[in-house]
Amino acid sequence: MNHEWFVTLAEVENVSTAAERLHVTQPTLSRQLARLERDLGVLLFDRRGKRLNLNAAGQIYLRHARRAVAEIETAKYELAELVNPVEGRIELGFLHSFGIWLVPTLIREFRGQSSHVAFGLAQGASEDMLGLVLSGDTDLAIVSPRPTSIEVGWTPIMRQHLGVAVADTHPLAQRDQVTINDVRDESFVAMETGFGMRRILEELCAAADFRPNITFESAELATVGGLVAAGLGVALLPVEHDSQLPPGISLVTLGGSQNTREVGLIWKRETAMNPAAARFRDFVTGWSSERSGRRAL
Q1: Residues 99-136 pLDDT 10s
Q2: Which long-range contacts (CB under 8 A, 24 or more apart) does 168-177 make?
Q3: How far apart are CA 243 and CA 223, in angstroms?
Q4: What is the pTM of this model?
Q5: Considering its fold, how many domains does the chain have in total?
Q6: Is 103 among the domain residues?
Q7: Which domain holds residue 35?
């Protein structure tokens, strides 16, 4: 079963928008959803007029569907190796949110130069990616923030602005900018321990001399956004290149000196790296420099 359509629908929670992105008709997408729910014997969305809201069952299925999509993409790369000779293989880890645009962009542009290099992909929390690099299961990983371990090398890729996500009905939704102190008394929806955004949140709050009141945790940014949209708390989120936040949310720019997160590439120090991975590391370093130069113009 192709799960990509369900992941898209779950992220946007709108049949029209999802159908447009998937280049299918709305009736076709609605029939696919009805068939899936019938096969599973459970509703995955709560219907409110034309709007869909991913429910608890849908969140469970989304988590597994994303894994299935990632596995299928990995299988495609492995099958491609059977058809075309390769000039090496790169095992690359990354955070889930970077799979929307950053990782596909880097791989596409790199393979324009090294078309016969194969990739194995792994997704997870920052701590998980660090563990895979240190164990040698992945050659490189794209993470944020920079790990504190001295066992890994680091090259910066970009900086992302941070924002505070609030429901559209929240008083702060009308603000152009907020500080972390403005939300010190709020309930927080946060990523689970081990994720980079959780570490950033805790460090920002510690610097402001308070501990966040975390009432909900999730391993998915989309779920965090859904809980915020439901009015169940506020969240610290990156301002993504291609935001997948659900309707009903305002992402207010975070002010202050610590209003960005650094994204970078890590690898295990003092370990021989295969030539393909070394070429990709050099490519990413150059890509980052060019991107910084373009933004400075």
Answers
A1: 888 999 999 999 888 777 889 999 999 999 999 999 99
A2: 168/229, 168/248, 168/249, 168/250, 169/231, 170/231, 170/234, 170/250, 172/234, 172/250, 172/252, 173/250, 173/252, 175/252, 176/252, 176/253, 177/252, 177/253, 177/254, 177/255
A3: 13
A4: 0.66
A5: 3
A6: yes
A7: 4-63
